[in-house]
Inverse folding.
């Protein structure tokens, strides 16, 4: 919400003029989102839900509601939740549809059950055409049945493979043999986990992506001794060094476009002070950084240019920073240590010849020389205007607060806790 405009007195300093709080589970007024098409998120009930185009996605994946901001991604798998479909193949398994309640709350998960006696592999497979020397994320939702482990692996035409074992009982990665040790398992409602690995072909353009049932860290076993299987839902292969929200597909690949969230016009000018101010932002954005590019928690710009801007961002997974540009020249680049994973609270202030930042209660970093940029008229939330493919925070923004004065050092440090 936007609180009424006021000047900060000694007794009013703790009251922000702007208070955007998605932890309430509610869309925040004055925030416009542009995103073509449907996109998914995890609702307050723990199930995957769909948001219509141009709406705020209030996501509960972490247990705390936040505005989900993601870059554009394409699920390269067709029939993403049709493991018995023509685009999938299988070996030594029986596949049963509508087997149990899935992560989206409906009964549309599949049961993959080992078949045929002997020390055999039991798997489903989807092939994909990929670009060499490019990183992809392969993910699937899985739930234990009589069998409690799966192996995810990608066999490249050159014979090299990336693989990992996951325990669906304990919710742990058993072993990781991916090229970048990227295996990850995340808990979802009703005993479901999302398992993922990163893959990278160095010489091939075709990859065979497998999900195998496993026993005691081995993908070969005899069903006479270990009968049963596991439940699967929602496979995804996407270009990038981490997976994003689930993108369902049927007969064709599907692209989810980027979330572009902003405040403009009077929704911006009603609270913004051009000469000095303080921003607080809380986010779990911790995505890997592409090259030396910074991912933006928030950015205030002039007509969506970098000529004049104030940004709170992270350039590494362990560094939050305040970046200020005026008339095309850098005025302040100061940073504090952030945590890699989980939520971070960052406070940054601006004023002529005084720029300050604190993160998670840290001591302040400051720059006491520099100009405040002029003409600022747009707040970008969870991204920068200039390159959505590399600026998106790819996470949740839980709060943004704003005070129309440069708060004192002790207040900045206290609010960042």
């Amino acid at each position: 919400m936007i609180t009424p405009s006021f000047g900060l007195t000694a007794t009013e300093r703790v009251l922000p003029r702007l208070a955007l709080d998605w932890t309430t589970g509610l869309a925040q007024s004055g925030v416009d989102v542009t995103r073509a098409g449907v996109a998914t998120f995890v609702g307050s009930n723990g199930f995957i839900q769909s948001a219509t185009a141009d709406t705020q996605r209030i996501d509960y994946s972490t247990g705390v509601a936040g505005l989900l901001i993601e870059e554009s991604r394409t699920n390269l798998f067709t029939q993403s939740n049709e493991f018995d479909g023509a685009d999938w193949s299988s070996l030594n398994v029986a596949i049963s549809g509508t087997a149990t309640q899935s992560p989206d709350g409906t009964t549309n998960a599949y049961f993959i059950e080992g078949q045929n006696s002997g020390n055999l592999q039991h798997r489903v497979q989807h092939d994909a055409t990929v670009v060499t020397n490019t990183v992809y994320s392969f993910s699937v939702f899985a739930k234990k049945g009589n069998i409690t482990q799966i192996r995810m692996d990608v066999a490249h035409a050159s014979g090299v493979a990336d693989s990992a074992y996951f325990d669906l009982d304990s919710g742990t990665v058993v072993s990781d043999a991916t090229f970048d040790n990227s295996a990850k398992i995340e808990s979802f409602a009703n005993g479901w986990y999302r398992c993922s690995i990163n893959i990278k072909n160095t010489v091939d353009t075709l990859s065979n992506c497998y999900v195998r049932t496993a026993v005691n860290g081995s993908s070969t076993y005899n069903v006479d001794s270990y009968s049963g299987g596991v439940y699967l839902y929602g496979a995804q292969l996407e270009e990038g060094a981490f997976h994003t929200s689930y993108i369902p597909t049927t007969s064709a690949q599907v692209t989810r476009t980027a979330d572009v969230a902003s405040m403009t016009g009077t929704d911006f000018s009603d609270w913004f002070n051009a000469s000095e101010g303080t921003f607080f932002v809380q986010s779990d954005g911790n995505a890997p950084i592409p090259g030396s590019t910074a991912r933006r928690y928030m950015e205030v710009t002039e007509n969506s240019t970098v000529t004049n801007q104030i940004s709170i961002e992270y350039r590494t997974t362990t560094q939050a920073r305040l970046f200020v540009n005026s008339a095309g020249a850098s005025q302040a680049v100061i940073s504090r240590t952030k945590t890699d994973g989980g939520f971070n609270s960052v406070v940054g202030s601006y004023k002529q010849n005084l720029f300050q930042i604190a993160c998670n209660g840290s001591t302040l970093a400051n720059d006491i020389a520099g100009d405040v940029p002029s003409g600022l008229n747009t707040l970008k939330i969870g991204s920068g205007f200039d390159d959505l493919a590399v600026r998106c925070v790819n996470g949740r923004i839980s709060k943004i607060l704003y005070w129309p004065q440069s708060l004192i050092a002790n207040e900045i440090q206290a609010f960042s806790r």
